[in-house]
Sequence to fold (302 residues):
Amino acid sequence: MAPAVRAWTRLLRAHASTTRLLNTQLQLEHGLTINDYEALHLLSRAEERRMKRVDLARRIVLTPSGVTRLLEGLEQAGLVERAGCPSDLRVTYAQLTEAGADRLRQASCGHVGSIRALFEEHLSGAEVEELTELLGKLPGVAECDEACPAV
Amino acid sequence: MAPAVRAWTRLLRAHASTTRLLNTQLQLEHGLTINDYEALHLLSRAEERRMKRVDLARRIVLTPSGVTRLLEGLEQAGLVERAGCPSDLRVTYAQLTEAGADRLRQASCGHVGSIRALFEEHLSGAEVEELTELLGKLPGVAECDEACPAV
DNA sequence: TGTGTACAATTGAGTACGCAAGCAACGTAG
DNA sequence: CTACGTTGCTTGCGTACTCAATTGTACACA
Fold:
């Protein structure tokens, strides 16, 4: 079996296992899916806490329709609201509300803790860095990171 | 931001991008989803080309019901068939048919090619190995590999 | 021998997407 | 200014899952 295939298989499995775990935790404790969280998180550190829906889609790796549905839920929950763009009437921004920022704050501590527990229990600090580095080389993974200010 | 979070985010993105790509290719060219392929592949290298549905579920990281639905499709396509277990009437094996083996053979060359293209275009051989190694340390990722003979 | 617990598999109901199609607003070429 | 291609977003429809509940079997123990 080609080495690449092993890597690919493990990527599949790694995603499935970790996602399942983190998603159920996040959902139970805060009523958010991973993508909900991811969206809130991106918005929270975007300029003026808002993003074009298309850009959001690219960042979370979803289709535009996926974003529409995702934000639908967040809007109903009052965590995100729509804001028009005066210079281009086609675009509608997704704007984080105060409630959304609160909810994110509540969830983030536990969520980050879960992630750290998951990764740091099995990998050393250097290995985590190494993994980040390697995954970043895959197409479309790292490309937007610079645009996103570090915490 | 904790390093683990960066790693996690990239894992999410890496999975989403690569999966989307590989899935559409596989689907267009051979009418199989990634999980279809994965199931056929696992069966093909299992003893007597069959597995308990539960074991299959663990390997592809799916719930038992997910496996039922997955195999439903493969059974209708004639690629997999059911086989009872005489010693334990609860279990039904998923058994790869000749047609299933053929279909897998047809698909595998192109699919493996796509995977290699995806990984080896951006990562060196050593890096692929390294990535495999690191992903294997995540919980539940490497555990069954020994049971699966290398190609 | 019956009885309780554990397990394999399925089924029904619900969800989170993708794809294709559509609409409206933009940019540009004529 | 009009016509046309492009872009941002949404909608209808289909699909691949999950979870909870159910059925049938296996096994331990009184």
User: Anything to note?
Assistant: Chain B has one domain: 20-144. The domain at 20-144 of chain B is CATH 1.10.10.10 (Arc Repressor Mutant, subunit A). The beta strands of chain B are 50-52, 80-84, 92-96.
